[in-house]
Protein: Cytochrome P450
Amino acid sequence: MTQYPLSRPEPLGVHPDYRRLRETCPVARVGSPYGPAWLVTRYADVAAVLTDARFSRAAAPEDDGGILLNTDPPEHDRLRKLIVAHTGTARVERLRPRAEEIAVALARRIPGEGEFISAFAEPFSHRVLSLFVGHLVGLPAQDLGPLATVVTLAPVPDRERGAAFAELCRRLGRQVDRETLAVVLNVVFGGHAAVVAALGYCLLAALDAPLPRLAGDPEGIAELVEETLRLAPPGDRTLLRRTTEPVELGGRTLPAGALVIPSIAAANRDPDRPVGRRMPRHLAFGRGAHACLGMALARMELQAALKALAEHAPDVRLPAGTGALVRTHEELSVSPLAGIPIQR
Ligand code: HEM
Structure:
């Protein structure tokens, strides 16, 4: 029996078994750290799992995703409405000029010899996330200083991270009620690691483009971002679901209570995925009730970052190639590259 998670052979690739499973056994019984589960690998089936209420997120508490992911509609929809109006493209676009300034300042400061995640991806992501969260609760970003210590991927002593979290909650809690605070904290925790991971993968893809060619080409940048999200979603995110009743899926009948792993990484490479207005669609931001609340922000961040890098650090390169790059952890959750040595 296949054991989930399958490893990633190279940073922008996925394990070849995903293709084999998609072609021969698209709803496969697998072993997983959570016990026996069903791994779903076709685009249509993954989209069906994510949009069908019989696949419950709340009944799959093995993957703690915060208050929003851990709740099913209709309660979930009520919670999501507390902030959803502030998360769409129009609102996020207002933050783009400031995000671009942050990205330019960081790109200009990239040293001759450095590491991309700590020099650019982390500070860029937590600064823009602070802007966004500040805008959600009505505070200037500079009042959210503790956020960086709360979300950073760098090692921080537990006591220090705990104190920063308590202080962040105090500051946010003065602005919003308890329930909204829980949803905003979901955004804080959901909004950093995935962006840092995607920034790393987008850098690798942009260096292949090559990077200077993207300067002055916003459409090319937007396409590169979408294609990178499709081919290398920040983790083969476990979007665990559990069936609430027997369900037919991909020619099989799953019993009630079955644990289901819809694989975005596999679905995004399915040759049968539908084509959108200009490009094949992808599921990197999920689908349905729990579709990513930060997708407009994430897209804007990735585009602003690549624009700044192409225009202000076009000479960035990887001295050791991609072979030596390792991920922070295996497939199960968002897994940024542990470090990307760069030179210019
Ligand atoms: C490239 C970056 C990102 C990727 C690939 C990504 C991916 C995803 C995916 C696949 C889901 C659905 C999970 C499921 O259905 O089980 C999700 C949900 C979510 N994401 Fe993101 N995300 C990204 C960035 C962000 C950012 C920047 C934020 C916040 C500012 C954010 C906040 C959330 C929240 C709050 C949810 C839960 C939504 C709900 O349950 O209603 N994400 N994300």
User: Anything to note?
Assistant: DSSP finds 14 helices and nine strands in the chain.
